[in-house]
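Handout, section B. The chain below has 729 residues.
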Amino acid sequence: MEITSESRYSSRLGRTRRAAALLTAAMVAFAGLAFAAPAAAATPWVNVQDDGYLRISVPNASVEEAVGPVSQVVVEGNFGPSFNWAQIGLQRSGANWTATYGPFEPGLYYYQVTGDDSKVLKDASNPTSVASEPEWSTFFIPGESAALLADAPEDAGTIETLTYDSSIANEEREALVWVPPTYKPKGKKLPVLYLQHGGGQSYRDWVEVGRAEQILDNLWLSGQLEDMLVVMGNGNVPDFSAELMDNIVPAVEGQYNVSPSRNKRALAGLSMGGGQTFEVFSEHPGEFTAVGTFGAGRFGDLDGIPVKKMNNKTDLFRVYVGNATDAAHNDVFDSFQKFDELGLEYQFDGVNPDAGHNWNAWQENLIDFAPRLFTGNSSDPAMSDGHTALTERFETPASGTTPTPWISEDGFVTFETTTEFADAEYASVWANIAPGGSWLRVEMNKVDDRWQATIGPLDPWFYHYRLIVDRQAVKDTSNPTSVTSEPMWSTFLVEGEESRLLTDVPEGQGGDLDVMTYQSTVAGQERSAYVWTPPGYDADRAEGYPLFVLNHGGGQSWTDWVEVGRTRQILDNLFLDGAIEPMVVVMPNGNVNDYPKELLENVVPATEQNYNVSSDPHQRALAGLSAGGARTLSVMKAHPDQFSWIGVFSAGFGSGNGVDVEAINANTDMIRFYIGDITDFVYQGMMTSLATMDAIGLEYEFDGVTPGPHGWDVWQKNLIDFAPRLFQE
């Protein structure tokens, strides 16, 4: 019987593409020494902050000592959407490679440090280890949603090592055994759950990465788990069915006080171990009263399986699978068609919408499966909360037939390169898909002469990305969108209620977006600005329209608020919602050495000449992001009587020296500040600014922290909050 292909279901989660040829013999030799359990360093490389934020600082000296000089460093682990493998790119800062990311959801995370795509090293500051993945370290983020993964609040079960002889492997082998507190060498014989690892893993993985000990402890302490032993054996053999029945089960029954009854045995496994589980199920029906497969769907030739015996002699056969990013997703669907045709009885826990082919999914599977064993609960077919039916295969369009990325109705996004990079060694997608809109890199896989990757589900929002091919940023030429200031960027929108304000309004219902040219005496050249006018704009209206000048940030251009910020869509939707006053919005070029002069002597006069705008300062607003926020403040400080409405996105106030606070307070209707969370590098400066402004008596509003980094996700939300406040009583 065919067992699930290790190449398809490998648990290495991103390392299969690193061919051994990429590593020199010297590195391999060194790796054999370097991956022994390290002593904890004084300063952790990955420091978990409150609320799930990570502060990462990897010493460059440690990287060079382990793998030699590198040009880039990432920390890669289960950080991506659906907890799939993704890379946090680090920036060189002095002697260290650093980043701040988050917040990440509660749970167990596993990761490694990688330089230049292929040079992998262990975090020498983290004493945790994973036997099957010597480069990996782990850390745990506590929280209510991961309560069953936390260390038990009191003594519960113990993990013991069982040694047995394997006639299949011709060697002495080991298994881990979880033993409940009630176990006694004599007296009541306990039932047993045999729990198998996946391809490329070891018998230790369920404890070192799967948190099986914590899960079983917490389930037992809460009364959800029957007294039982859980045996985690070594499935890396050519004939697992024989290994289990001839070696592992006899060893357990010979060394522990467990029931020999077939009705007191259960068997489950993940990925390859799920395929092995089904193999035993079909070859030895009735030997196990309950069977579970986690993230496995390739079960070999099903036509000859003894369906009647499997149905009659088994109380429970329950199948688990992750979402469309789970490598087993389509295989499970195909297997169900065959199960139904053959009449094989099974329960389905439903598609887990939040996890792919990874430990986060398999931990949840164990949490659902184990409490069903050796009780009357095995007959309950209910899906886990939030899980959904599996009604069709997940299919993407044929290669090269559509613009990229391709977006499914439920938010799964598939990227694909052209054939231009057929000979590349490595490719990834780098996009604002981390929590709050930070950037994460996701590895692409070689499919024929293209590279592909599917990620998701992504929340409805507007995204930007670039491709990285052999460490060089490239434009996705299959995506027709562009960003003038970032030539390698492309953009896409995932539609939904959360992104409604970023979505195009029906044709003919929105405002007009014009390009205004003007002469800059400061820059000594003709320049351009985008101008949004509201639906129904009347150039001859007796009363001039309020004017809102919106500034871009450093390294950006006058096009960014439209091309990345979605200003046109935001203003159109807010206007149609009746949320903003009719106004004229100007987005000029702020890249000059004297912005107040540029604004007041060039931009504003050009706007007054071309558009019907009010000259009343109380009908004028000024806002900007990052460096544009600093420019906004420079105008306010130098000319407090020109703009009565001030918005500052991700920029600190600076020094209070020489500021005419009395004039600013007297002439402004609103000064409102915005900032991202601790992943925004301006965060600390903004916190200091609050104290400065309080000390000098400036009257201002602070919107509080907008979750997210120094990026467009935050600034779009800032604009959505700021614009409706303008020109109100």
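Note. The first strand starts at residue 46 and ends at 48. Compare this with the example in section A.
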